[in-house]
Design a protein that fits this description.
With about 180 residues, the protein is of the alpha/beta class. It is built from four helices and four strands.
């Protein structure tokens, strides 16, 4: 990892360019997916980078030369990989908020029913102390039903949003490719 001109660079050295791509990818050569291990390595590195730093990826091929077509292919693959992850993470965040809204409606409905039941049950019990105990227990159960939506809206969405921002940064990362210039035998 090296910092130059306000860009934080990850230097990767691989023997050949195909090591960067998913070998199980059925797509034609022009549109390749990054290997999941390579993608995870890049994400792990980027998570440690300062939030305001621009990110860059420098790939050096040790056993083959690189050309502009290879560089364009790699650049497109890196940007497309992280653009897809941004879209997936945003979908996940929308689903989480939808689930939170549904859970909140259910929780509020349950709390209202618990309060009604508490009042009804309290009037049926003759001993005032037991009646209070039952009433408060039922109301506490109603409040507990709100725990899940409150957890979603206060805490669960922050890491997902942070991941989306990280993937956005990586989707805009500068990508450079260089290779060895071998003499022909």
């Amino acid at each position: 990892m090296e910092e130059s001109a306000e860009t934080l660079w990850l230097d990767l050295h691989v023997a050949v360019q195909k090591q960067l791509f998913n070998s199980m990818d059925p797509a034609p050569f022009r549109k390749r997916d990054l290997d999941p291990v390579v993608s995870a390595y890049i994400v792990d590195w980027a998570e440690e980078a300062p939030l305001r730093a621009r990110l860059g990826l420098r790939v050096t091929l040790t056993d083959e030369p690189a050309n502009t077509a290879d560089a364009a292919l790699l650049r497109a693959a890196v940007h497309e990989n992280f653009n897809r992850r941004v879209a997936g993470t945003r979908r996940e965040l929308r689903r989480l908020f939808r689930d939170g809204r549904i859970s909140l409606a259910i929780g509020l409905g349950f709390l209202a029913i618990a309060i009604v039941i508490s009042e009804a049950v309290g009037g049926l019990i003759a001993n005032e102390h037991y009646a209070l105990l039952v009433q408060e227990s039922v109301v506490i159960g109603g409040w507990v039903a709100l725990w899940h939506p409150i957890n979603i809206f206060l805490y669960d969405w922050w890491p997902i949003r942070a991941s989306a921002k990280l993937y956005e940064r990586l989707s805009r990362a500068e990508v450079q490719l260089s290779g060895t210039e071998r003499a022909q035998p």
